[in-house]
Design the sequence.
């Protein structure tokens, strides 16, 4: 009953359509019962009384009944399936919207393949709730009851034989249904691994090719495909064993009824019309019983998907915060901030304290892995601090409305994310309402306008997934144009030029200098000019600030900074 309540709750928005389908289902059940009912008068009147001239009317009646049944079945199936498709559409929209508001930490612990699998394949299976489960229950259960009524009325003792077999059918369906649920859940998990492997391959195709790992990657994919095949085959076996058991019990029951009923006709205890009417009703009865069994096994399959969807929906959204802010005027202060990733005890940052004033350029330097990127990720609240507080104009970031906070921040990083859309849409991503002139002006300031106009369709050129139709420098300048158009008071630059060639780096650096004007900037950089020109430089070592000051000050007192600076200089 619990799972049926859940199904009813999930499908409640679509019940106007489903209810219309149920009304048609009632008519369908009545027609099926009528077909069984007319067998007796047809047999007794035409064959018993030898009124063969009535056969043509019987034939016309049968055609009309079956055509009417087909029309009603079409309408009922259309309503049920369209309701199922609406459920899939709305649930997929709901999940996608839910994913957009999950914290960054969720994507660190859950693979992309599992998330994609839940949104695509698990949700798709929900259509069976209406088009198969509810449809079969509301159509076939009344049909079973009507046919049972016809059979009991015609010959109750024949029908009792059928009823004795029903518990065995129900038990076998329940037994295999539990196995199907468990196996389907495991099959979906293995399918998510395949989805993840495909995504990784597309993103990392260059690495796969340059390391000549295509063959080994294909072998891994084939192994995962084989595991999914085996698990899916187990589901098929369980479903077919359910069908087999129902067919076996149906055969036994039908044989017993045929033997017993034939004996009753031979002894003139019942008329051939009664026998054939009861036999037809019972024969027609087993078809709906089998469909109800199929609906139950489908319900068990769908339960596995519903549980996986529920797991995703139960993942909590980011804490939004209540205090709306509309600018940066005083300071951004780190007060004894510590941070460890969820589920780990090791601190990435420990007791970090410093302040950033409006208009300052702050450079963060340190060896790889000391927590530089993690530090700047705390500002837009991609992560929640483990200890201490970060305050913006005196307000704890945990209390700041997250949307108003992020309106103040622009990010340009080494790993540029562009979308498979036009150049125009990518530049205007942070300000969709921006005018054409504003978009072009942002591109000009980012030194992107010239190369954009040389593209096949100019600003309407589709740039491909992650902007792969553009060079690294071009992608970077599009990202800078995006940040310029947003015009945020706080700018975060995370090694924005470290992977570029010297020509592209020079252009990007000029664009960055334009972007940084009159803006508070926190920059992680290897470029010497950026470090030297920063108002203050924060030196991180093992997650702690070991020194802070101007370039000249640090060169006289910080061995760590001198080593880092010399390393940058030797690599420049």
Sequence:
């Amino acid at each position: 009953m619990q799972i049926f309540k859940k199904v009813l709750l999930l499908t409640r928005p679509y019940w106007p359509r489903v209810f219309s389908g149920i009304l048609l289902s009632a008519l369908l059940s009545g027609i099926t019962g009528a077909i069984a009912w007319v067998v007796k008068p047809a047999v007794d009147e035409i064959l018993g009384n030898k009124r063969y001239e009535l056969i043509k009317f019987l034939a016309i009646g049968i055609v009309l009944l079956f055509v009417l049944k087909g029309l009603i079945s079409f309408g009922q199936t259309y309503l049920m399936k369209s309701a199922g498709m609406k459920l899939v559409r709305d649930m997929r929209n709901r999940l996608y919207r839910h994913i957009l508001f999950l914290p960054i930490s969720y994507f660190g612990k859950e693979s992309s393949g599992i998330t994609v699998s839940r949104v695509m394949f698990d949700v798709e299976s929900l259509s069976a709730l209406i088009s198969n489960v509810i449809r079969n229950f509301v159509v076939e259960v009344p049909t079973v009851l009507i046919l049972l009524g016809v059979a009991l009325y015609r010959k109750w003792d024949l029908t009792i034989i059928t009823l004795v077999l029903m518990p065995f059918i129900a038990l076998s369906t329940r037994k295999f249904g539990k196995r199907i649920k468990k196996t389907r859940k495991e099959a979906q998990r293995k399918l998510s691994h395949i989805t993840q492997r495909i995504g990784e391959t597309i993103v990392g195709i260059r690495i796969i090719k340059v390391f000549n790992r295509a063959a080994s990657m294909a072998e891994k994919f084939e192994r995962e495909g084989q595991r999914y095949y085996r698990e899916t085959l187990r589901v098929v076996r369980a479903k077919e064993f359910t069908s087999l058991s129902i067919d076996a019990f149906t055969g036994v029951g039908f044989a017993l009824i045929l033997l017993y009923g034939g004996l009753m006709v031979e002894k003139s205890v019942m008329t051939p019309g009664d026998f054939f009417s009861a036999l037809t009703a019972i024969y027609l009865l087993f078809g709906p019983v089998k469909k109800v069994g199929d609906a139950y096994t489908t319900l068990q399959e769908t339960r596995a998907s519903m549980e996986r969807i529920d797991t995703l929906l139960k993942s909590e959204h980011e804490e939004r915060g209540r205090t709306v802010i509309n600018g940066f005027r005083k300071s951004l202060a780190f007060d004894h901030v510590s941070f460890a990733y969820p589920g780990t005890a090791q601190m990435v940052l420990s007791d970090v304290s410093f302040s950033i004033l409006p208009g300052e350029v702050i450079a963060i330097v340190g060896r790889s892995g000391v927590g530089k990127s993690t530090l700047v990720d705390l500002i837009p609240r991609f992560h929640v601090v483990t200890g201490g507080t970060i305050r913006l104009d005196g307000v704890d970031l945990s209390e700041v409305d997250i949307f108003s906070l992020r309106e103040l921040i622009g990010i340009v990083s080494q790993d540029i994310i562009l979308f498979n859309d036009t150049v125009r849409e990518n530049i205007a991503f942070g300000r969709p309402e921006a005018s054409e002139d504003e978009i072009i002006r942002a591109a000009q300031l980012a030194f992107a306008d010239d190369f954009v106009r040389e593209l096949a369709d100019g600003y309407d050129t589709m740039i491909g997934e992650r902007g792969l139709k553009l060079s690294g420098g071009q992608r970077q300048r599009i990202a800078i144009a995006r940040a310029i158009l947003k015009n945020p008071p706080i700018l975060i630059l995370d090694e924005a030029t470290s992977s570029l060639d010297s020509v592209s780096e020079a252009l990007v650096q000029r664009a960055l200098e334009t972007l940084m004007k009159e803006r508070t900037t926190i920059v992680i950089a290897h470029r010497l000019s950026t470090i030297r020109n920063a108002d203050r430089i924060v030196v991180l070592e093992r997650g702690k600030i070991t020194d802070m000051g101007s370039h000249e000050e640090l060169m006289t007192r910080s061995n760590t900074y001198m080593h880092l600076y010399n390393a940058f200089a030797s690599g420049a």
